[in-house]
TrEMBL record:
It comes from the Bacteria. It comes from Paenibacillus nasutitermitis. This is ATPase. Residues 17-165 form the Activator of Hsp90 ATPase homologue 1/2-like C-terminal domain. The lineage of its organism: Bacteria, Bacillati, Bacillota, Bacilli, Bacillales. Belongs to the AHA1 family. InterPro entries: ASHA1/2-like_C (IPR013538), START-like_dom_sf (IPR023393).
Length: 167
């Protein structure tokens, strides 16, 4: 997978007051991931988490009103506890990639590159990513939603921070 930056890529850096191994496990162990991943107020139910290149995470997010959205990660690269690369998609309950429920032009796949570095017991997470193998229309849809994506990811990372403070 190319590491080349594109205009559509998103970059977020966040420091957590927790060891790198703990932060990495929060991303890669089903019981931990279920405690914080997703929009605020949503519950995550993990169907499977196969942590190896070519493995898959499959889960559904349930809104407080009961609305269910399935999603998956296809793991591409895992270097514990330094790096995690996966392709994220909306899916059905069987893990088949589907269009986002909110847009016919949303990218079918979004790449995510996470690096974890530790200094003095604190972990710096750097997240980059964006549309993967996307059409121009899909890239444009992603770009038009960039502020909302960033805001959503920051909220999710706030939940990760709160989870780490409890552990």
């Amino acid at each position: 997978m190319a590491e080349n930056k594109t205009e559509s890529e998103l970059f977020i850096t966040r420091v957590f007051d927790a060891p790198r191994e703990t932060v990495f496990k929060a991303w890669t162990e089903a019981d931990r991931l279920a405690q914080w991943w997703g929009p605020q107020g949503y519950a995550l139910e993990v169907e499977k988490l196969e942590l190896f290149p070519g493995g898959q995470f499959l889960g559904c997010q349930r809104s407080p009103e009961g609305h269910v959205m399935w999603g998956k990660f296809m793991y591409k690269e895992i270097i514990a506890p330094e790096k995690l690369v996966f392709i994220q998609s909306f899916s059905d309950e069987k893990g088949n990639t589907i269009r986002a429920p909110f847009s016919e032009t949303w990218p079918l796949e979004v790449s995510n590159h996470l690096t974890f570095s530790e200094e003095d017991g604190k972990t710096t997470l750097t997240l980059s990513g964006g549309p993967y193998q996307a059409s121009e229309d899909e890239r444009a849809a992603y770009e038009s939603m960039r502020p909302h994506i960033q805001q959503g990811l920051m909220g999710t990372l706030d939940q990760l921070d709160a989870y780490l403070k409890q552990t």
